[in-house]
Amino acid sequence: xxxxxxxxxxxxxxxxxxxxxxxxxxxxxxxxxxxxxxxxxxxxxxxxxxxxxxxxxxxxxxxxxxxxxxxxxxxxxxxxxxxxxxxxxxxxxxxxxxxxxxxxxxxxxxxxxxxxxxxxxxxxxxxxxxxxxxxxxxxxxxxxxxxxxxxxxxxxxxxxxxxxxxxxxxxxxxxxxxxxxxxxxxxxxxxxxxxxxxxxxxxxxxxxxxxxxxxxxxxxxxxxxxxxxxxxxxxxxxxxxxxxx
Length: 245
Description:
- The chain is α/β, with parallel strands linked by helices.
- The chain is built from nine helices and seven strands.
- It has one domain (4-243): Vaccinia Virus protein VP39 (Rossmann fold, 3-Layer(aba) Sandwich).
- Helix 1 crosses helix 4 (85-95).
């Protein structure tokens, strides 16, 4: 992994490019399949972290607020933290005063002060990080009994593997050089080694964001079948959830 300051600089440059060049289109959240994928991820975070009125929630790596705007609908007291000032500003525009958006560093805990949270959640953020540092410093702000929930790319998926290992694919997909991905067992082990209780860690989702709208129904039916077979191991994403003892 790159030295921290090089990684932080690369992430800030990526944030500038996301806002300037609309790089989010490469992740497909705006299409019909992408919107469904986003809704499913948000629903998972809300259910697994028991988000609702009065729950103090921290969203890691909020980006431009694609998920922040969904999470605030639960009525939780949401703090969204983002390393890039540019993407944080876009996030702030999207959610208005419904969430507090903080520019900070989730590896070091910078920007969080002495706050405590009942839940920590995020989508596609942990693979950008030194996970051990994040679990040590930011998860120190999770109260005993507090919940966590994340979705992450699955390294066992062929496309995800190619984006991380083949230079031409990495560049075409605008994947930064330090981004990685996880296998389910590896991700579980990292959380458990940090003293957290993992209640769920599994591959999911075969619906690709580029799926044409007319095929979404068929792909979802196939997905339900594949997730009951060994093929589930190569699904596109992982989801992990649990609690702090």
